[in-house]
Design brief:
- The structure is a single chain.
- This protein has helices at 5-19, 25-43, 45-56, 60-80, 89-92, 97-111, 120-144.
- With 169 residues, the protein is an all-alpha fold.
- The chain has one domain (25-144).
- The longest helix has 25 residues, at 120-144.
- It is globular, with a radius of gyration of 18 Å.
- The N and C termini lie far apart (57 Å).
């Protein structure tokens, strides 16, 4: 008797494709890179320390959003200097890099006895979008005033000035 597993796998892959956004091969590659970068950054020794500090704070969604926004900005800046820049939509989209990091963030919170609200991921995504929009507005305003290089992202409490939470900055 032949196994039905290969057929079931194809059905499940078809369901995944139908439920998520349709990505081009380049976007799919960018999503893998962004997800890997975000997870690696958050789970590095320094990244995890910053994440625990953020999660234990009074407004954890805002603090986590700042960390993620810093990682996004760094990645987008670096990729913008390549021949094929990363598609920025892969971070915030449904099924994007932040969605993919949700389990890691929850695992860090649980390991440290921190309880998160059910809608924490959505709150973080909304805050990341807000932080990135404010950052963009600040850069545009500075450029209009004839300013030089844009200011670096605000450091997290306990982080060195200009440093990334994962030591990549």
């Amino acid at each position: 008797m032949l196994s039905k597993a290969p057929m079931k796998m194809k059905e499940m892959e078809g369901e995944k494709e139908a439920s998520g956004p349709k990505l081009s091969p380049e976007e799919a590659a960018d999503l893998k890179i962004a997800s890997s970068l975000l997870t690696t950054s958050l789970l590095s020794e320094q990244g995890e320390q910053a994440l625990v500090t953020a999660l234990a704070g009074p407004e954890p969604e805002k603090a986590v959003a700042i960390i993620i926004a810093q990682i996004i900005e760094m990645a987008q800046t670096e990729s913008g200097q390549t021949d094929i820049p990363m598609t920025p939509t892969v971070w915030l989209m449904e099924g994007g890099a932040i969605d993919n990091a949700e389990e890691d963030i929850e695992a860090v919170a649980e390991a440290n006895g921190i309880e998160l609200p059910d809608d924490f991921e959505e709150m973080v995504i909304d805050e990341v979008a807000t932080v990135l929009m404010k950052r963009r507005e600040a850069i545009l305003a500075q450029q209009q005033q004839g300013g030089g290089a844009p200011p670096s992202p605000a450091p997290m409490p306990g982080q060195p000035m200009g440093g990334m939470p994962n030591g990549m900055g």
